[in-house]
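Entry 14. Structure prediction run on the chain below.
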Amino acid sequence: MLRIEIIRESSIYVKCGMLILFIGGLMHVVGMSAPYWVVVSGQGAEAHIGLWVSCLPGFGCVSNDSDLGWLSGCKFLEMASLLILFGVMGLLVLYRIRNLRLFIILSFIGSIVSEVFIILGVIVFVAESPFGGSLNWAFALEIIAAIGLVPAKLCAIVVKPERSVYKVNSRSSEYMKYIIAGILTLRMVSGVPERVSMSFPEATTAMLLITMAPKIIMNT
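Output returned:
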């Protein structure tokens, strides 16, 4: 029996990473947008303050002063983190289509940068905010979103190639080796996430023998 080894990239960790990134991104969007980073109480009223607006019951919401440099810095860091997170999810989709390890590496780096930006944003807010009061649930959601990106990076680290072995009857082993490998090569080129462990001359021969497969099989 002839053994043909096929390398197939594991996908369960990629799917898991994409799910975690989606949930983390959703929490990041909600936390970043909600006017509940800080709650300030005084004179019988309770004001809710976020990155973009501040709200006071009975008076509505107003936009926060864009001239505050520290607040603009927080907004930039959180928005940049969100955009990078979208890019990371896009890279994982590309990995599922083209099966290039480079996409996993870039998504790993991107998730680290996104997490760092989230953490820097909340640190700047806590350090520079003059509002006082107590931190609220939207701020906590940002922290949870940053922590939630850690499992996504772990999923990227543990993506390993899986090996499958195909056996071919020795009576037609030499021909069938190239035919099967050639078919798998065609599947790889067309976007199926498989890689064939064969040299370029072997792959070229395989592609040519695919068209001759019926005649070869009949004569063996």
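Helices lie at 12-33, 69-98, 101-128, 137-157, 173-189, 200-210, 213-219.
Filed with the rest of this week's runs.
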